[in-house]
Design a protein that fits this description.
The protein has 190 residues and is mainly alpha-helical. It has 2 domains: 2-62, Orthogonal Bundle (Arc Repressor Mutant, subunit A); 72-185, no CATH class. Helix content is 76%, strand content 0%. It has 10 helices and no strands. The protein has helices at residues 2-31, 34-41, 45-52, 55-62, 80-94, 100-108, 112-134, 136-159, 163-166, 170-185. α1 packs parallel to α6. The longest helix has 30 residues, at 2-31. The radius of gyration is 18 Å and the shape is elongated.
Length: 190
């Protein structure tokens, strides 16, 4: 019985987080309300408060970002740019409305907490992942430029929905952006 209750609790929490991510992605932090998230999740607002305590804590939970980067040291140097672009395109094509990174991107321009979380995510995840590919001395600088390109893709395709970018297939995105990323990364390692 306790296991069923815990399972239902986890399921309810997941439903709330999905609704929150969608709402924060669509409206940003300022315009999102607990009542609206609860309505989207088809639950009473008191349940949102029960699980998260406040709008700020709900936002914090919705912003938890795991970039799920592959082990880049295992990717041959010449394939690294396409692998990076493909990784982000694949995750965003799955369900961009529920992607914490896109919620974070939309929110970061108006909310300092989200901007700080974005900086932390890229510093803690992208730079170390790239260190194996480009060397630790260049990883921080290169990670910033890689982030600019990939977040630019996220912004133009999934948030602003620029027609010229949304019209491209995922493979065309990889083929179009991989050369730019290759220039950013520098000479391929053997």
């Amino acid at each position: 019985m306790a296991r069923d209750t815990a399972g239902r609790g986890a399921q309810t929490k997941a439903v709330i987080l999905r609704a929150a991510r969608e709402r924060f992605a669509a409206q940003g932090y300022e315009r999102t309300t607990i009542r609206a998230v609860a309505g989207d999740a088809e639950i009473d607002p008191s349940m949102v408060m029960r699980y998260f305590g406040s709008k700020e804590k709900l936002f914090e939970a919705a912003l938890a970002v795991d970039l799920r980067l592959p082990d880049l040291s295992a990717v041959p140097g010449g394939e690294l740019p396409a692998a990076l672009v493909r990784h982000f395109v694949d995750r965003w094509e799955g369900d961009p409305a529920d992607d914490a990174l896109l919620v974070l991107l939309r929110s970061a321009v108006t909310n300092e907490q989200a901007a700080e979380r974005m900086r932390e995510a890229f510093a803690a995840q992208v730079a170390p992942a790239l260190a194996a590919a480009v060397g630790p001395e260049r990883a921080g600088r290169v990670a910033g430029l890689v982030a600019a390109q990939l977040l630019g893709l996220g912004l133009t395709r999934y948030l602003l929905r620029l027609p010229a970018v949304t019209a491209l297939s995922p493979q065309a995105l990889v083929e179009g952006l991989a050369p730019a990323l290759a220039a950013t990364l520098g000479p391929a390692r053997p």
